[in-house]
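Entry for the shared binder. Reason: the reviewer on the internal report wants the predicted structure included alongside the sequence.
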Amino acid sequence: MILEMKVPSPGESITEVEIATWLVEDGDYVEKDQAIAEVDSDKATLELPAEESGTITLKAEEGDAVAVGAVVCLIDTGAAKPQGTGQVEKSSEQSLVNEKKEEQTVEEKSTYATGTASPAAKKILAEKDIPAETVKGTGKDGRITKDDAIKAVPSMGTPTTDSTRGGERKKLSMLRRKVAERLVAVKNETAMLTTFNEVNMQPIFDLRKKFKEDFKEKHGVSLGFMSFFTKAVVRALQMYPDVNSMIDGDFKISYDFQDISIAVSGPKGLMVPVIRNAENLTFRGIENEVKRLAIRARDGEITIDEMTGGTFTITNGGVFGSMLSTPILNPPQSAILGMHNIVNRPMAVEGKVVIQPIMYVALSYDHRIIDGKESVGFLVAVKEALENPVEILMDKDAKKALEM
C-alpha cells in the first residue's frame, strides 16, 4: 500500500511551510514516528514524523515551499524491512553513488561555462555596471543566467572570493526571513523609544545565597533571576496597564492578565515562548515554567501555541555578555524589557561609596500607546521591586514565598 504523507497544519493562519532539511534519503526504509524532515513555518521549526513504516519516496526538495495539505513524500507500507547487512551494503553502495555524483558535479562545474554570462545576462550586467566575475551563476555548470543578473546588486566593497578565499551563499530559513520581515516592520510601523535605568542586584544576590540550596532541594529547580524579574514585571504591568496593552487599528486592547514572553536561545535561533498567567504563579511556578520552556526550545519541541499570545516580553542579553542594548519590540506587543550582564560597580549607599552588583535595564516601548510618564514609571516600579524584593515581591516573608 502506498501512503501519501501530507503537510499537517502547524498552527492557525499558517498556509505553507518550507522543507528545511530531509533527515532521510529517497529510497530509505523508515520506521513509524521516525523524524524524516525538519520543516520551517514563519513561526517555528518543526519535525515531520513518518506516519507508517516503509520505504520512502521524496516528493519535495530541500528549500521548497509546500502548501499545508500537499503531498511531500510517499511511503510504501508493504515494503519489507531490509536486513542489517543488506542495509549496510546498500548504504555503502549509496555512498559510492554519492561520491561519483560529487565527482561529476565537480567536473561539470569546471567547464568553460562556469562564470560565463548568457547574452541576456551579459546585457543586464553591463547596464548595471556589474562585473560578471562578481556574480555567482546558478545555471548549468555555473553559467550566469538572466535571473542571476536581474537579482545581482552592485557591490559596495563586498568581499571577493578566489581559490584561497571561500564563501557560502545560503538561503535564509522561512523562520529567519519572517523574523527579518517583522523586525523591519517594527522599525517602520511603530514609534519605538527606549528608556534606561540601573538596578542594584545585591538584595537578590543575598536572597539567592541564603535560600538557593533549600529551594532546589525542595522544588527540584534552581532559584534564578527570571522569577524575580517576572514577579517585578507583573506588578509593574498591573500598576501601568497601558504597558500591557496593544494597538489594533484605531483601538487599544488592554488585558487583565499577564502572559509573559521570555526570549530563549534554541537550535534555530531566538525563540520566545510564553509563561501563561504569570500573575498567578509563585517563584517555584515561574522557575518551573522557565526551565520547561527552555528545554523544549533547546530540543526543538516547542509548539507554535507556546510561542504566541504574550502580552509583554523579557529578554536577557546579559547571558551573552551584553552591557546595554535597546531591545526591539515583539509585535503586536507594545513593550519589552531588556536585562543585561551584572557588573560590580561603585555606588553611593547611605552616603558611602561601596561596590555593588549593578545591572542596566532597558524598556523599549511603542510611544503611540505608551507615554513617557508610564514608561519611566513602569521601569522605576521594576527597579523598586528588584531592590526591595522581600517587602514588595514576597509580602515581607521570603521563606514562605519560596516554599510555596
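Summary line for the report: The CA atoms of residues 261 and 274 lie 4 Å apart.
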